[in-house]
Amino acid sequence: MEFIAANDLDEALAAKAQHADAQLLAGGTDLMVEINLAHHRPTRVISLRRVEDLKDLSPGRIGAGVTWARLERNGHQGLAQAARTVGSPQIRAAGTIGGNVGMASPAGDGLPWIAAAEASIEVRSMERGARTIPWNEFFIGVKRTSLETDEIITAVVVPEDVPTAQEFAKVGARNAMVISTVSCIVMQGDDGVRVALGSVATTPMRATRAEEMINAESTISDSVLSEFARIVSREVRPITDHRSTEAYRRHASGVLARRLVERSLR
């Protein structure tokens, strides 16, 4: 295995342009598991750990190299809540949001937040420069993205009008260091309620029909919340796998969404 340690973004882009098949490495919390289990044997790895250009953090821009540990202290409310659920303190100190985005796992803890925030993914290549891809065009399937082979994820770009009222929660097989069975985030802003979920479809998803229903109501009563939860449960597209069943994921999606709306109204 050839190891290339890029010192800056230009070096990383040049290496990726020359070696389209190279595996990018930031925190390594997913890649090293795959390598250690012999599920993946890359012939070439480009390390991004020294690339300071990927570590900028501001309300409108989250560099791909920003770790979960930084996000749990300085991120948007809902993203900070999600960050606190990612693995152990050691994992959060190493793992990055760029890795979460690049892996594009349906269970990625940061991805529902990106969907609810209507954020975009900034990518860059040596040949074409930078481009910004809306989240729903970037995530195209289970662990599949629209990233080109010579591109590197550089940032998550957050709109200025992202709601500040944000609540995140997830359920899993245990209380800590767990891959989510269902994850959910609710945001409330001037445009009403936004609901996004993970682990219930091939990509992170917005529950748009549930959003339309609850945003049409002038008063949020128990009956409204019950109907909202029912619509969320019907709208998700889960599967049965080794972590859970389709039926449980549908039930949990509605329960989580309702609880988070109630929490955000306090």
How would you describe this structure to a colleague?
- This protein is of the alpha+beta class.
- It has a domain at 165-264: Enolase-like, domain 1 (2-Layer Sandwich).
- It is 36% helix and 24% strand.
- It is built from 11 helices and 14 strands.
- The protein has helices at residues 9-18, 31-36, 68-74, 77-83, 89-94, 97-103, 111-117, 135-138, 208-215, 222-235, 246-264; strands spanning 2-5, 23-25, 44-47, 57-58, 61-63, 120-125, 129-134, 139-141, 144-145, 151-157, 165-171, 182-189, 192-198, 205-206.
- The chain has a 5-stranded antiparallel sheet with strand order 4-5-10-6-7.
- α2 (31-36) links the parallel β2 and β3 (44-47).
- The chain is globular, with a radius of gyration of 19 Å.
- 45% of the residues are buried.
- The model has no long low-confidence stretch (mean pLDDT 93).
